[in-house]
Here is the input.
Amino acid sequence: MFLKVQLPWNVIIPAECLDAKGLMLQRQIIIRLLEAFSSKKATQGLGYFLAVTTLENIGEGKVRQHTGDVLIPVVFSCLTFKLYRGEILNGVVHKVLKHGVFLRCGPVENIYMSCQKMPDYRYVPGENPLFINEKMSKIEKDVVVRCIVMGTKWIEAEREFQALVSLEGDYLGPVSDEAFLH
Here is the structure.
């Protein structure tokens, strides 16, 4: 799910980047904010940081005594992406194993669907392994699959989420290309 959130942040402007023109300072604030924002990646509460949308407020800067750098509090709006239990999502299969498949959805790289959560599908080994059902519907590498999120887990060390998904529900499974054309 995409969320729009407003966040406070502290931007540090090095002394050598300061000049008398306010426009250059505002540019430096935006550049430093975007650098810090992109390195943050994600938080457990808000999910993955995708984009800064607006700079809402620039506070009064405070000079750091030893370095001469200026610490400026800012408030900005941004878009985030976070998976929630019960949410329906479309993921792209990137790895097929005997016991299930791994999918990607947006910034989330590790979404796992166990073969036990793919009713009526059976594993077919080979050079390009896949899961297939009696209606010849295939789940293989690069296929888009609509599924439901059963649970998520935050991994602090990698600053990322993992998720478990299932095909158990109505209108879930591989999504055909024709569905996107109409």
Notes: The CA atoms of residues 31 and 119 lie 49 Å apart. Confidence is low (pLDDT under 50) at residues 178-182. The two ends are 24 Å apart (CA to CA). The chain is about 15% helix and 50% strand.
